[in-house]
Design a protein that fits this description.
366 residues, alpha/beta, TIM Barrel, 8-stranded parallel β-barrel, 17% strand, binds (3S,4R)-3-hydroxy-2-oxopiperidin-4-yl beta-D-xylopyranoside
Length: 366
């Protein structure tokens, strides 16, 4: 992943340094055609205002580097969302740069920003193979030492934000596409029980936080979704303190779960006593995208949002970015883009309007 190349740099300076080059252009375009002015007709209200009325959590990943310098980005975040997720600022290698060295400046900034704006924060993520730091991978630690490192990390991070971060992705993408456990430094040295330990440590550090296993392509029904189901079922059966499953939903026009499959998966997870969050939705399009493709994209956002709202167990709808101006897609999926609900001038796309329609529909027939 190209962003990985930025990481060393990221560890030293603000994240803005590693945002796409377009990040440096000055914002001169108009705001979304919505506003938070009091007394507005319901149709003109932003997503957040409509969601707040219904107690619905709607949110996005945010990047603190951008939040610090792009006023329009910041204004849009406050206006449209009631739950935020840090894009990189809480990942292991970003936060815990050497055994005795933590860097909390950016994660603190995000949590303070959210608290001032009365927004919730989802912690993302305690463990993810792409952000296992070099010092751990090359440290030749024994199993016992690695367990202590894991305990210290989770205590320090979850403990610092106790009561301020309502939910954590404890393990991210721990399963391969074929359903086997992913080969990571944790699995190799500790064994599969690293997952149990991570949940247990997180629960000990903040017993009130809601703890998730989070993954991609496990949204519908299929081998990977079955493997995630089997893992979380076994965690529940062994009383490991897991509360939910995060369904990432990074999809395309051709590859996305149907509403029926998504419902069925959420329902089987809820029967285990788990809740579900849609955690990272985006719908990437081949470039350049046509108007029809933007409409088809909107339909997918609509189906997923409606499905989530119709399932009691689905308790948050979160996207992995909201403006095409700053998107992880172009670095990771060359030839794709336009994955988000606002364009690169923050203008609402059809996908934005369908989310509003869904919320308006909820208000008129709850
Ligand atoms: C991505 C970020 O968007 C990038 O900026 C970063 O360099 C790498 O990670 N699944 C996840 C997210 O769980 O953490 C990833 O975020 C996107 C895929």
């Amino acid at each position: 992943m190209k962003h990985w190349a930025c990481l060393t740099f990221l560890l030293i300076i603000a994240t803005a340094s590693c945002t796409p080059s377009s990040a440096t252009s000055s914002p001169t375009t108009p705001s979304p055609a919505v506003s938070t002015e009091p007394g507005l007709a319901i149709e003109t209200m932003p997503l957040r205002q409509l969601a707040d009325k219904q107690g619905i959590l709607i949110g996005s990943q945010v990047n603190v580097g951008i939040l610090r310098y792009d006023d329009k980005y910041t204004k849009t975040v406050k206006q449209e969302f009631n739950v935020l997720v840090p894009e990189v600022e809480m990942k292991f290698a970003f936060l815990h740069q050497a055994k005795e060295m933590y860097y909390f400046r950016d994660s603190d900034y995000l949590v303070d920003f959210a608290q001032k704006g009365n927004m919730k924060v989802r912690g993302h993520t305690l463990l993810w193979h792409q952000f296992d730091p070099e010092w751990i991978q090359t440290g030749n630690f024994t199993k016992g030492e690695l367990i202590e490192i894991l305990r210290d990390h989770i205590n320090a991070v979850v403990g610092r934000y106790k009561g301020r971060i309502f939910a954590w992705d404890v393990v991210n993408e721990g399963i391969n596409d074929d359903g086997t456990l992913r080969d990571t430094v944790w699995l190799r040295s500790i064994g599969p029980e690293y997952i149990d330990l991570a949940f247990q440590f997180a629960h000990n550090a903040d017993p009130d936080a809601t703890l998730f296993y989070n993954d991609y392509e496990a949204e519908g029904l299929g081998a990977k979704a079955d493997a995630v189901f089997a893992l979380v079922k076994s965690l529940r059966e062994r009383n490991v303190p897991i509360n939910g499953v995060g369904l990432q939903l990074h999809v395309t026009l051709n590859e996305h779960p149907s509403a029926e499959e998504l419902s069925a998966n959420i329902e089987r997870l809820s029967k285990l006593g788990l809740i579900v969050h849609i955690t990272e939705m985006d719908v990437r399009l081949h470039q350049p995208a046509t108007a029809d493709e933007l409409d088809a994209q909107a339909q997918i956002f609509k189906d997923v949002f409606e499905t989530c709202l119709s399932e009691k167990a689905c308790q948050a709808f979160i996207m992995w970015g909201f403006t095409d101006k700053y998107s992880w897609i172009k670095d990771v999926y060359p030839g794709f883009g336009d994955a988000h609900i606002l364009d690169n001038t923050y203008k609402p796309k059809p996908a934005y309007y369908v989310l509003k329609e869904v919320l308006l529909g909820k208000i008129s027939s709850p």
